[in-house]
Write a structure and sequence with these properties.
about 150 residues, alpha+beta, four-stranded mixed beta sheet, two-stranded antiparallel ribbon, 3 helices
Length: about 150
């Protein structure tokens, strides 16, 4: 575990760098197609800008001793919800039918920081409540250690 901590700064820096590079590439890809979302949305609607962070969290989970076969990234990411039929997550850890980690990564940049922060806060609270209610009515078996976190950079 010490090796993980020693390299954490480098790993976070790599994820942040990938975030900015991916935003730029997604914006340019839209511009080259002749279509562009309003404002800064063209940099994020490609959906890959948070992949560096998802990879970082996946590697931290694996470094902590969780076997790869329990970690779901880019496939089988839906969980039943309470307020909606299903919710797709960015990263899940499910072992022996028990949900251990459900993680969704969101980003925000731009001039409407206050409004965007409020929207992301409401989204995080809604996703957490949806998962909690689904668990309460036993749609989702969960491990005693349930992590439902967001990272805002």
């Amino acid at each position: 575990m010490q090796e993980v901590n020693d390299n954490l700064t480098k790993r976070v820096n790599k994820a942040v760098t990938l975030y900015w590079i991916t935003r730029k590439e997604q914006r340019e890809r839209q511009r080259n197609k002749g279509a562009s979302d309003a404002g800064l949305r063209s940099a994020v609607t490609g959906g890959a800008q948070m992949d560096g962070f998802i990879n970082l969290f996946t590697n931290l989970i694996l470094d902590a001793g969780i076997d790869r076969k329990f970690v779901y990234q880019k496939k089988a990411l839906e969980l039943p919800g309470f307020f909606r039929p299903t919710k797709e997550w960015d990263l899940l850890v499910v072992k022996d039918g028990n949900l251990i980690v459900a993680l969704e990564a969101k980003s925000q940049v731009g001039p409407s920081f206050g409004n965007n922060f409020n929207n992301r806060t409401e989204e995080a609270m809604g996703s957490a409540l949806d998962l909690k209610q689904a668990r309460f009515i036993n749609h989702t078996r969960t491990h005693n250690i349930l992590i439902n976190n967001w990272l805002l950079v």
